[in-house]
Amino acid sequence: MNNVMAIARRDLGAYFRTMSGYVIFGLVLLVDGVLFNSLALGETDRRSTEILHRFFFYSSGITMVASVLVSMRLLAEEKQTGTIVLLTSAPVHDREIVLGKYLSGLAFMALITLSTVYMPLLVLLNGKISWGHLAAGYLGLLLLGGATLAVGTLGSALAKTQVLAAIISGVLVVVLLTCWLLTRVTEYPLNEVIMELSLYHRHFPSFSSGVIGIDDVLYYVMLAYFALFLAIRVLEARRWK
Amino acid sequence: MKTEPAKQSSAGDAPAGRKHSAFASVVYAAGMVLVWLGERVLSHGTAAIAASAGGVVAVAFALGFQLVPRGRTSPEVRRAELSLAVLFGCGVAALAAYFATSDLVTVLVGRPLKRIAPGLNEALSTLWPALWVIGALPVALIELALASMRKAPAPDRGRVRSAQYAGIGSALALVFAFSFGYAGKILDWQVDLSYFRTTRAGESTRKIVRPLTKPLAIAAFFPPTNEVGAEVDRYLSTLRAESSLLTYTRHDAALEPRKAKELGATGNGVVVFSRGERREQIGLPLELERARETLRTLDREVQKRLLTVTRPPRIAYFTQGHDESRFEPAGDTDRRRPISGLKVMLEEQGFEIRNLGVTQGLGGELPTDAELVLVLGPRRPFLDGEARSLVDYVRRGGRLVVALDAEADLDHGNLTEPFGLRYKPIPLANDVAFWRVSSQLADRINVPAGTYATHPSTTAAAKLGARAPAVFLGAGVLERMGEGENVASVQMTVQSEANTWPDANRDFEPNENEVRKAYDLVAAVTVRGAAPGTTAREGRVLVVADADMFSDLALRNMGNGILAVDALRWASGDDEIAGAVDSEEDVALTHTRKRDTAWFYTTIFVAPALVIGLGVIVTRRRSRSRSRAEDEAAQDPAAHAAEESNKQRMAS
pLDDT band at A45, cuts 50/70/90? Predict the structure, then answer.
């Protein structure tokens, strides 16, 4: 565990040692702000539940994109710069490397996601807000971001360069986002299985409506677990591939 | 002395026989694809049967091919092929389990397995996907490992084993993840945090209960462990604490049918308010999900019933005959804003609504049962006699609401001057703070209230203040004008924002002669009785500079609803129960230019700029300390090296 935290701390610090981390942070807030103003608040009078629902809908897209961008450098950057050899030859397990890298990305994503809370809180100035709805929505964003980040970590483990990592992760995420379309051409029970795999369509809307379902939480947790498991296996594969 | 020859490692042995070929794995994969095509894509017909059968044969062939020794080969290759054979066996077992749960059993035996042995059918349905994944994934990884050792004399046993374990581990992890997901789906446990809690007894409702002088009974009919009943219990128990004359009891209509019948409750899910012969009810669904809507506004519903049961019926008259605002539009061409919401509001306060025209006494003696008279948005002038009759009514202790319309271009002097007020039909406008309705320049006349005076007619509105201001859609200019007739006091209770101006030329732009300041929007006047038949009760008049403040459009705004309730309560003499009604209903957020601008700049500029600015500061500080360290190293390398070594020692 010490090794995991050491790697996580070092990597998390790296985000804030150069401007790139701050730029990503600022860009996410800017895009979220634009979408909040133009689409969530809109021009017509809307109830706070509707504003929150829309806010979480748009934020989920930003979160997924940001997660892919954050994850692309996790392992691929080390391979690209050649420092992966130093890392893998250090007295740390492959799983500690992957978990440490993942946790650093997760902490960074969580910081960015939670820092957007001032936007829905603005609603409080002139209306009501359900704290439970807000909490449920942010839990959904964190789970979605965590799962996407894990998929991105897998992509980063598979790729040799950061660009390729982003492409692989992007493809994986898009497949998970759009797989529910296959339910139109498949039959029971395959269509049910495919629907359950859907990254957004099946599992996120309840969070954005203020409802926390155990099946939705488990889906994101299991997806993150499986993606990280595969990422560790991919890293280990250098020994037998 | 003899020496034994050194044992050579297996990898160092000379190549022995054939190398591994992926042929069997390719046939295995092709077989699985054929089965999938036959079962899922083609699904019926000869082609489907041929594809499925072909696939099964291919898989079985691959298994046999891998099991049967074929010529001389190294032990490592043989071992790898046997591992593959075991995995192919898993695949065969998966196919067997699948076909056992398919229509094949029906064809062979006459009945499907789920009828013959439902438990076994369930188990096999769950097992075959797991077996299939365990059979497929490790095969792919073993072949990948073997392919990378193609040019080696013999494959490394450890690497093949690692690949195999990685595959099996990944397959089991997938099965584990799916199982957990499935368990979550079956559990189907959810918590809805968007639910706004059941309302609590509001200040206004408590004020109704506190001064009770006669007993009032509330009886709730719900099953013993019902969730909705528990919510109602919580609400009514707090209300019971306000007065010893209020009794609250809980019953089960199924167990006490006589009690239910006595109070007129047809079953469970009913709350009955009764005093003597007077009785009112609230109906609630027994399921919490369906009852949420009503529970969110329970305080308002309870208040309505309490007012009806505790007070005698009262009558509110709306004047007619001067093109006043209507409850419903007169036709498709009627563009005036309806005031049906105001009617509902008055009925909830226990009023019966009636018209007041010439035939009902306007211009002569107003009805003696008139508890409240409303003049809403007249677009034709009142005759002097009509106005006089209203002024006399107020002096006899009557309660009058006069809401005027700047669009009518009338000052209605005979209605306002007797009460010490002057009204100018010039619409007020504001180019900074205005309510956006149509996104046109004309929205500038939708001005929000800026300040509220401390007065019983603005109790709840003043508490909300700028958070939910009332909006006036085309208010005129209202001014004090010396002393009125027998006026005891005139208080201007609501003012606009300070940068409002009267738009005399109606161009929605501020001009030089249009003075910016805070203008009065509502006046509350109390009148001493002087006319014949004077009662001890003071007369009250509420003059509002904009009739559309009570329109359905404006009442959608939370601030308007709250101000309207408080103002009407004061005007009708109910100010002793003025105060907030607790509601957990979600409300629409109104847009004003000022608010939108603040939100825009905060969310789009301020927050990202703060983050980037922090980044600049932190990175510049780091680069400065780095270059300082480099300078020090250049000046005194030995001292610098000693310091660095110290730092490293402390860090380790």
Answer: low
Q: Which pLDDT score is estimated for B349? A: 80
Burial zone of B438 (CB within 10 Å; 0-12 exposed, 13-18 middle, 19+ buried): exposed
Question: For A41, which of B160, B178, B599 is closest by C-beta distance?
Answer: B599
Inter-chain CB proximity A126 and B467 less than 8 Å? yes
Q: With contacts defined as CB-CB under 8 Å, which chain A residues touch B126?
A: none
Cβ–Cβ < 8 Å for B587, A13: no
Q: Is the ipTM of this complex over 0.90?
A: no
What whole-number distance in Å separates Cα of residue B16 and Cα of residue B75?
9
The rounded distance, in Å, linking the Cα atoms of B590 and A44 is: 8
pLDDT band at B590 (very low <50, low <70, confident <90, very high): low
Local structure of B356: helix, strand or coil:
strand
Q: How far is it, in rounded angstroms, from Cα B403 to Cα B408?
A: 12
Give A-chain residues touching B468 at CB under 8 angstroms: 126-127
A211–B193 C-beta distance less than 8 A: yes
Q: Do A130 and B193 touch (CB under 8 A)?
A: yes
Task: Give the tens place of pLDDT for each residue, B533-568.
Answer: 555 578 899 999 999 999 998 998 888 988 998 888
Reference B200, options B455, B565, B564, B579; nearest CA is B579
The reply to whether residue A239 touches residue B145, judged by beta carbons under 8 angstroms, is no
Q: Which of B160, B197, B604 would you mutate first to test chain A, the one with the most A CBs within 10 A? A: B604
Which one of A215, A226, A234 would you mutate to disrupt binding with B, by most B Cβ within 10 Å of its Cβ?
A215
Calpha distance B188→B185 (Å, rounded): 5
The reply to whether B616 touches chain A by the CB within 8 Å rule is yes
Characterize the bridge pairing of strands B216-221 and B270-275: antiparallel
- For residue B143, give every residue at least 6 positions away whose Cβ sits within 8 Å of its Cβ, in sequence order, or none: B22, B25
Angstroms from A167 CA to nearest CA on chain B: 23
**Span B258-307, pLDDT tens digits:** 988 888 888 899 999 998 888 889 999 998 878 877 887 888 889 888 88
Residues 6+ apart with CB under 8 A from A100: A3, A4, A5, A6, A7, A8, A11
Chain A: residue whose CA lies nearest to B149:
A241
How far is Cα B51 from Cα A47, in angstroms, rounded to an integer? Answer: 57
| Contacts A240 to B, Cβ<8 Å | 145, 148, 156, 158-160, 162-163, 166
Half-sphere exposure of B547 (CA within 13 A, CB side): 26
CB B235 within 8 A of CB B199: yes
Contact yes or no for B587 and A48 at CB 8 A: yes
| H/E segment holding residue B124 | helix B118-148
Q: Do B190 and A211 touch (CB under 8 A)?
A: yes
More confident residue, B198 or B15: B198
* Whether the model pTM is above 0.90: no
C-alpha–C-alpha distance, residues B316 and B307, integer Å: 15
Distance, CA of A45 to chain centre: 32
Nearest residue, CB atoms, B194 vs list A22, A130, A226: A130
User: Do B368 and B396 touch, CB atoms closer than 8 A?
Assistant: no
Residue A226 and residue B177: Cβ atoms within 8 Å? yes
Using DSSP's 3-state secondary structure scheme, residue B241 falls into: coil
Q: Using the beta-carbon criterion (under 8 Å), do B162 and A240 form an inter-chain contact?
A: yes
* Token reading at B637: 């390398």
